[in-house]
Automatic annotation (TrEMBL):
<dbReference type="GO" id="GO:0005886">
    <property type="term" value="C:plasma membrane"/>
</dbReference>
<keyword id="KW-1133">Transmembrane helix</keyword>
<dbReference type="InterPro" id="IPR000301">
    <property type="entry name" value="Tetraspanin_animals"/>
</dbReference>
<keyword id="KW-0812">Transmembrane</keyword>
<keyword id="KW-0472">Membrane</keyword>
<feature type="transmembrane region" description="Helical">
    <location>
        <begin position="16"/>
        <end position="39"/>
    </location>
</feature>
<protein>
    <recommendedName>
        <fullName>Tetraspanin</fullName>
    </recommendedName>
</protein>
<feature type="transmembrane region" description="Helical">
    <location>
        <begin position="212"/>
        <end position="237"/>
    </location>
</feature>
<dbReference type="Pfam" id="PF00335">
    <property type="entry name" value="Tetraspanin"/>
</dbReference>
<comment type="similarity">
    <text>Belongs to the tetraspanin (TM4SF) family.</text>
</comment>
<feature type="transmembrane region" description="Helical">
    <location>
        <begin position="59"/>
        <end position="80"/>
    </location>
</feature>
<feature type="transmembrane region" description="Helical">
    <location>
        <begin position="92"/>
        <end position="111"/>
    </location>
</feature>
<dbReference type="InterPro" id="IPR018499">
    <property type="entry name" value="Tetraspanin/Peripherin"/>
</dbReference>
<dbReference type="InterPro" id="IPR008952">
    <property type="entry name" value="Tetraspanin_EC2_sf"/>
</dbReference>
Amino acid sequence: MASQKDLDFGMRCIKYMLCVANVMFVLVGLLLISIGYTIKSIYTNFEEFMETYYYNPATLSIVIGFFIFIIAMFGCVGAIRKSTFLVNTYAFLLSLVLVLEISVCIAAYAMRSNIENNIAYNMRVAMSHYDMEYNAFTWNSTQYNLQCCGVDYYEDWNVYSERTNFPLVAVEVNNQTMHMPTTCCEFEVCTPGSIYLRGCLPRLSSIISQCALLLAVGALCVSMIQVLGIVFAHMLAKSIRKLKTQMLIAKEERRRHFYEQMVKNESEKSKKDIFAPQESNA
């Protein structure tokens, strides 16, 4: 039977191991929050072209990251108080987080399908309302940062050449007059040689697709770590139960040994009293 000293040492080891695991999960939570906020900030630059549900995987990633901080508390408290209930709760919550992370992977991967058609439609709608300040800002920012022009080609802007309220400039290209915003040109100075010939749709679709892939891969990697955490938490709960059982058995053995020693002492005392010589009154 293990000594009390060995049992206490084993329990301390479990506490330290769980604390290390919690530090790891806090770092994982920070990673998820960082990925989520980075992708949301990238999407914000093209918000007018984005569907609302494109933000859902990134938002869910941020929520999971904050949720992991709360879960880590259950693991720490459970280890300090040697509570199998809290450690099992810790493992259960990790399982829920695992399900959410798998949902992020599925949502991010599914988002990649039909992404180009949805973005193209939104870009054309925003282009037709280029006279509105917000649409103009989004289009100008996109064309300037991605060094592109129009949806598919720079000729897309020529459809709106008769819109007098559109701030477009005329450029002679191959003996044809083309109309476009100044952000379609390098350094916003439009000449036949400074026009961005490529459309913005392929580049924007590629960026969003890569962000979705990054989010899916990040959530998948974290999920694999979560599986190890769940197994580890169950092993800790089992070890705590085993150590508590051993401590209880050791306590009962000490108590039984104490009672046996008392009975033995009482028995020896009775024998001495019986066989002790009686003093005679002479």
